[in-house]
Design goal:
Blueprint lengths: L11 E5 L4 H12 L3 E6 L2 H13 L4 E5 L5 H14 L5 E4 L14 H29 L2 E6 L12 H21 L4 E8 L21 H9 L12 H8 L10 E4 L12
Parallel strand pairs: 1-2, 1-4, 2-3, 4-5, 5-6, 6-7
Bound molecules: NADP nicotinamide-adenine-dinucleotide phosphate and D-gluconic acid.
The site of D-gluconic acid has 14 residues, from loops.
C-alpha cells in the first residue's frame, strides 16, 4: 500500500468554526498532512483570534467571517474561497453549540437555535460545496457528530436531536452523492476537553472534581477525557484517499465509552 493515500497534499480544506477547539486541531492536522487551510468563524474577533493562533503555530490559513446558518452568506463565502483559494476538496462541518437546559424549561427559540447551528448549517454548507465537488470528480465531507448522535442525557434535548439528525444527514449525503465520488462521513467525538465542555470539568468549591467529570472518567474505558489531538488521525483518515470506500459511516472517537456499560459502583 502507498502511504501517500493518507496525504492531503494539493487539497483545499474548509473547516467551519475553527478559531479554536476541535476545529482548530483538525485544521492543524490537515496542514501537517499537506492541505491548504480555510476556516471561518462567526465574528471578526474570533477570526482574528484564530489567525493569531494559526500564525503562532506557523500554519498559513485563509480566515473568513461567516455565520454558517446564513445560506446567502455561505453561498457567497464559497464563491469567495473559490476565487481566492480554489475549489474546496474537503469540508468539515465543525461549528456547533450546545445549550444545557431541561427540556420543559427550554424555549422553542433556544431549541431552534441549537438545531439551526448544529444541523441546518451543515446542510447549508454541504449544499454549497457539493456542486463543485461533483464537477471536480471528488469530494470529502466530514460532519462532527457526537455521542449524542446515539445517546441522550438530561438537559441536552436540542443538541441530541440535532446531532442525531446530523448522523442521518451524513448517511443521506452518502446515499445521494456517493456515485459522484463524494464521501460523507461523521466523526463522533466522546467527551473532549474543550471550552464547550469546560463547565462539566470545573473544580468544585471544595477543590474536588466535578461529579460529571468523575462520572465520565468512570464510564470511559480509556479512563480519561479525550483531547483534541485524539481526533486528528481519524480526521486525516476520513479526509484522505485512504477512506475512498468508506461512506456514510460515523467514526466514534470516544475512548470506548459507547461500548461500555460502566464500572459497578
Ligand atoms: P467550541 O469550542 O464551542 O467551538 C465551536 C466553534 O464553532 C466556536 O468557535 C464557535 O464560535 C463556532 N460557532 C458557533 N456558532 C457558529 C456559527 N453560527 N457560525 C460559525 N461558527 C460558529 O466547540 P468544540 O468543543 O470545539 O466542538 C466543535 C464541534 O464538535 C461542535 O460541533 C461540537 O458539537 C462537537 N463536539 C464536541 C465535543 C466535546 O466534547 N467538546 C464532543 C462531541 C462533539 P463561538 O465561540 O462564538 O461559539
Ligand atoms: C454534554 C457534552 C456532550 C459532549 C459531546 C459528547 O453536555 O453531554 O457537552 O454533549 O459535548 O457531544 O459526544
Amino acid at each position: 500500500m502507498d502511504m501517500k493515500a493518507f496525504s492531503l497534499e494539493g487539497k483545499i480544506a474548509w473547516i467551519t468554526g475553527a478559531s479554536y477547539g476541535i476545529g482548530f486541531a483538525i485544521a492543524e492536522a490537515f496542514h501537517a498532512a499537506g492541505a491548504t487551510i480555510v476556516f471561518n468563524d462567526i465574528n471578526q474577533e474570533l477570526v482574528d483570534r484564530g489567525l493569531k493562533s494559526y500564525a503562532e503555530k506557523g500554519i498559513p490559513v485563509h480566515g473568513y467571517v461567516c455565520d454558517v446558518t446564513d445560506e446567502d452568506a455561505v453561498q457567497a463565502l464559497v464563491k469567495t474561497i473559490e476565487a481566492e483559494v480554489g475549489v474546496i476538496d474537503i469540508l468539515v462541518n465543525n461549528a456547533g453549540i450546545i445549550r444545557r437546559i431541561p427540556m420543559t424549561e427550554m424555549s422553542a427559540a433556544e431549541f431552534r437555535k441549537v438545531v439551526d447551528i448544529d444541523l441546518n448549517a451543515p446542510f447549508i454548507c454541504a449544499k454549497a460545496v457539493i456542486p463543485a465537488m461533483i464537477k471536480k470528480g471528488h469530494g470529502k465531507i466530514i460532519n462532527i457528530c457526537s455521542m449524542m448522535s446515539e445517546l441522550g442525557r438530561e438537559t441536552v434535548s436540542a443538541y441530541a436531536a440535532a446531532k442525531g439528525g446530523l448522523k442521518m444527514l451524513t448517511r443521506n449525503i452518502c446515499s445521494e452523492y456517493g456515485e459522484f465520488n463524494i464521501q460523507c462521513n461523521g466523526i463522533g467525538p466522546g467527551y473532549i476537553a474543550t471550552p464547550q465542555t469546560a463547565p462539566l470539568r470545573e473544580r468544585q468549591p471544595d477543590g474536588s472534581r466535578h461529579p460529571f467529570d468523575q462520572f465520565i472518567v468512570a464510564k470511559t474505558p480509556a479512563a480519561r477525557w479525550g483531547t483534541t489531538d485524539d481526533l486528528q488521525g481519524p480526521a486525516v483518515f476520513l479526509a484522505s484517499d485512504a477512506s475512498n470506500f468508506v461512506n456514510g459511516h460515523i467514526l466514534y472517537v470516544d475512548g470506548g465509552i459507547l461500548a461500555y456499560i460502566g464500572k459497578q459502583p
